[in-house]
Amino acid sequence: MGATSRPRAAGTLAGASGEASRGGVKSAQDQRKSTDIAAPPRVETPDPGRVCPAPGGPPSDLFSGGELYAALEQAGVALAQGEPPTARILRANREFCELTGYSEAELLERTFFDLTHPEDRAMDQALYEQAARGLKRAWRSEKRYVRKDGEIRWVAVRGAAIWDEHGTPVRTVGIIIDITGLKRAEEALRRSEDRYRCLVEATAETVWITSPDGLTTSESPCWYAMTGQRPEEMLGLGWLESVHPDDRDRTLRRWTHAITTISRYEAEYRVRSADGGYRFTLARAVPVVDRDGRVREWVGMNIDITERKRAEESLREADRRKDEFLAMLAHELRNPLSAMQFALGVSQLSSVPEARRAWALSVMQRQLRQLGRMVDDLLDVSRITRGKIVLKKEPIDLRHVIHQAVAAAGPSIDASKHELSVAVGEGPYWVFGDPARLEQVIVNLLTNAAKYTREGGRIWLTAGREGAEVAIRVRDTGIGIPAEMLPRIFDLFEQAHPTLDPSRGGLGIGLTLVKRLVEMHGGAVSAASEGEGRGSELTVRLPVTEEPARPREQAAPSGRGLARRVLVVDDNRDHAQGLSLLLEQAGHAVALAHDGPSALETARRFAPEVILLDIGLPDLDGYEVARRLREEQGERALRIVALTGYGQHDDRRRSREAGCDAHLVKPVAHEVLLEQIAG
Questions:
Q1: What is the pLDDT of residues 85-119, one digit of tens each?
Q2: Are residues 373 and 511 in the same domain?
Q3: Which of 84, 106, 135, 442 could form a disulfide with 169 if both were Cys (CB 3.0 to 4.6 A apart)?
Q4: Where is this region: Disordered (predicted)?
């Protein structure tokens, strides 16, 4: 009979049968402790003189009429008989044939070692040889059989040697039980335990186990690393000492509720970290129950969610600032619109004096410029954020830019009756930059100073060379900047005084534009203030560049030129009519169209030299109108100018590809419009 490398305690076959009769098939735990073998009811060990014939007798007589063999056959147990010296199989019942996949005739041509897995064979031979030499009367083992079809089956073997009257082993008999299912279950359990152990070791989170009543029973190195609490201090309910005092009662109530109701536990709370601060953690735990529904233990994990909490707070703050911005935007839009509405009403009165009519016109022009600047700032922020602004850099003397900015910001400063002092110095201050964008930077600084300085205040603008940089400073006697706001004053939508009188407020984007544009020029901007009511000073620093060989020649402004035939295409009839009146006043012949198809028809009939083309048209958009006009007009000189509210980079690209010669974004100064018509 064969055996594996893990022999069990020896005993007689009859004695082993007696163990089974008292308890039936053993539990998995008992089987692991012994041999996982079930045996038939207890019978007395057969008398060797009665069971075994004299030496040389026929082997078939060994079991004939034997009570033991009959009982095992009826129990459906796999039985086999072997020859001690050679391990040759002498007899096998049906169950053993089914286990191995061989017929009895095929088995009688083999030894037990032929069936044994090669890795188990050496130890199996050693164990069998001990029984064959009379050194071991019974044995137990577990090993692998290789079936005829190649499948590997685990078996538990309980074997015994039968001796003759001289004490010589003449036969071996054995019970063989298929334990493949048990082995697979043990392997699955081992792998599961290995996965769990690896998961615990690999995760950076804290894994813990408690007793059924919720008391921590295992130490957690990760908890110690996170909290600094010694492992033994967290046992029981000791871990609560690391929970923030404000969260402790709520956390314990949730844990107690989960224990009482045997439900999933989840709670967020703060724990004291090893450095003395507090971090947010998410605790989750589930009960592990047995087949009877009783809780065996609780397994839980704590996940550090501090960064998530900070991100959530940042999102809430950004949402709050967005809401404040939208409210301020609504106010900033309504103010000029309201002023324009009243001024328009005054100008329409038949009895109003000419002087008041002129005043109304100036109000509408001023408020319209304010709206245009606001929209431009919003678009600039969007472009800068997405990296869409392209600077047109050239060597420029910064003094000229400063003087232009002072002239542009003058009306805002004068309206608040401020006194502006400008000290630029002799210069020149050559920098490599975009003159329009640098003028925008200085205008924003000046208007910001005017906005946050009470009426009749003072503003100083100075510029000078400081090493390899040009420093521009704008100082005021305004309401100042709180110390806690200084690090955030250049953030988008941030305002030092959000509760300020809305008439002096703003969108909170002006200084953001200043910072981004200055940084795009390789410079830096900073803010300083001695506190509220003490004024503030903003400083821009730009790197100097070498003086160019020749000063830049300024192009002379083009005049209006000759009268042209102009087709205005716009679905906004008020806008089209107003533009038509302006062009006719300038001496041009004008025709109108309000959609794509009529634009094509009017162009065929009117033969325009210039077309001012809106993009967002009904029926046929401006891009398609431009393409068809180019196809129809062929080589004839025709200037197409896109005049639209769409001003993104992609909009300009599409209009250019459609055949437009220029792209203007509404609103457009009438001087610029007339220059475009002149070509």
A1: 888 999 999 999 999 999 999 999 999 999 999 99
A2: no
A3: 84
A4: 1-58
- State the residue for tokens 């100075």: 462
> Do 25 and 164 fall into the same domain?
yes
Spatial distance between the Cα atoms of 163 and 52, rounded to a whole number of angstroms: 8
The reported pLDDT for the residue numbered 463 is 93
Of 326, 356, 384, the residue that ends a domain is 384
Which residue has tokens 């005993």? 11
CATH of the domain at 330: 1.10.287
The b/e string for 445-458 (b: 16+ C-beta within 10 A; e otherwise) is bbbbbbbbbeeebe
Q: Which residue has the higher pLDDT, 476 or 578?
A: 476
* 24 exposure class (CB count in 10 Å sphere: 0-12, 13-18, 19+): exposed
Query: What is the b/e burial string over 53-87, where b = at least 16 CB atoms within 10 angstroms of the residue's CB?
Result: eeeeeeeeebbeebebbebbbebebbbbbbbbeeb
pLDDT tens digits along 606-653: 889 999 999 988 889 999 999 999 988 876 789 999 998 887 778 888
Over the stretch 283-294, which tens digit does the pLDDT of each residue have? 999 999 988 889
| Contact criterion met (CB below 8 Å) for 399 and 435 | no
Q: What gap in Å lies between CA 72 and CA 17, rounded to an integer? A: 10
Same domain, 164 and 254: no
For residue 35, pLDDT over 90 is answered with no
Give me the chain's average pLDDT, please. Answer: 80
Digit-coded pLDDT (tens) for 362-384: 888 877 877 877 777 777 777 77
Residues 6 or more apart in contact with residue 676 via CB below 8 angstroms: 610, 641, 662, 664
Residues 262 and 349 in one domain: no
Q: Is the pTM of this model over 0.70?
A: no
Are residue 521 and residue 608 in the same domain, yes or no?
no
- Calpha distance 659→118 (Å, rounded): 84
Q: How confident is the model at residue 335 (pLDDT cuts 50, 70, 90)?
A: low
In a domain, 549, yes or no: no
Residues 429 and 505 reside in one and the same domain:
yes
Q: Is residue 504 part of a domain?
A: yes
* Same domain, yes or no: 289 and 326: no
Number of domains observed in the structure of the chain: 5
Asked if pLDDT for residue 340 goes beyond 50, the answer is yes
- Asked, for residue 613, whether it belongs to a domain, the answer is yes
Note whether residue 155 is domain-resident: yes
Q: What is the CA radius of gyration of the chain?
A: 48
Distance CA 596, CA 619 (A): 6
Q: First and final CA of the chain: distance in angstroms? A: 110
| pLDDT band for position 263 (cuts 50, 70, 90) | very high
CATH number reported for the structural domain that contains residue 635 in this entry: 3.40.50.2300
Greater model confidence, 520 or 33 = 520
Strand partners, 360: none
Which backbone phi and psi does 324 adopt, to 5 degrees?
-65, -40
Percent of the chain with pLDDT over 70: 82
Q: Where a domain ends, among 479, 510, 543?
A: 543
Residue positions counted in the chain: 679
